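Regression test attached.
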Amino acid sequence: MKRTTVLAALLMMIAGIFTWHWVSPRIHVRKSALTGPIAPIPPVPPSPSSPRIPERIPALTLPDVNGKPRALAEWHGKPLLINFWATWCEPCREEIPLLGHLQSEFAATHLQVLGIAIDFKDAVARYTRDAPLPYPTLIAEEDGLAPEAFGVGTGLPVSVFADSQGRIVTVKTGELHAKEARLILGLIAKVDAGNLTLSAARTEIGAQLRQIAAN
Amino acid sequence: MRTVASLSLAFILCTTLTAASSGFGTKDEFPPPEQVFRYVIQSDGTKLAVLWNVAPGYYLYKKRLAILTDTPGVTLGTPHFPKGLIQHDEYFGDQEVYRDDFTVTVPVTLSADAIQTPTSRLHLKLKLQGCADAGLCYPPAVWTTSIVMPIIPLMKQKQP
């Protein structure tokens, strides 16, 4: 009887860990602190199921601002910082100088910053003509396929960090700050140099990002 | 029993540690837009009132707000927007935004045929786009909904 109970508890534990791994990217939803006089629950549009962040950079080909198709595989072998942005997104535009600076600062690690605009081609072309981006940007229009392939979808900006093997190390939703970016890129450099495992880098990044957010 | 309790505690600790070591950063730190931009639609039969409630720390752009219908025989007039707050955007200039609670009213005109129709369900599309002060913008969205228009005012509207 006791053995059966222990076995059942062990199975529960394994199932729990398994479930956590599959759903964890979706359950960090902060409860909204709604106030105000609106009592009835409004009609809520059906929200599409949140896609899962893949382990690796997906095989995507998107046009650049000149309409030339560019495959993400073109940058394989380099650590990547892929930034989803849009011209209508103020925090996205605000982080562009930082992204350009990071591209230079981490040049020794062969970092490649890459923009993916969730925006119309004309709007991106107009914006980049007025304020050229210091790194390549591809255009995914507003069809949502590219964010879906990366498992991101709540809003913009989103920064996806991958090591030189194309393994996604972490994803930052919302405006990226210099301290966060330097921490992540520094640890990715250690992974690429063979001085840190991917798992250890993720653990360290998760812990330090929470610490930064708490301060 | 004690063993079960210990294992349960181990399970909680394991999941907590696994959560702590999750490598996917802050993916879902922000709630979906329907949780932060909430609305109720009311109608007296001659106009619609969209009562918006924006969660603290979030805002909606006035120029991205719209209400449309494709219900036959129903025409929506020019919406009346309350005065919003001015927020400066380096690229787009001064932008009018809404926070907290605000109401947008829209006149409704019905064709003669629509007044005769027994059904009074109005299908609506709400266009919106908003952001969070914490540095995130939700993509432009179109939400669909429908409401039942009050019958009595419709009958009154028919009378000269």
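Expected vs. actual: identical. The longest strand of chain A covers residues 80-85.
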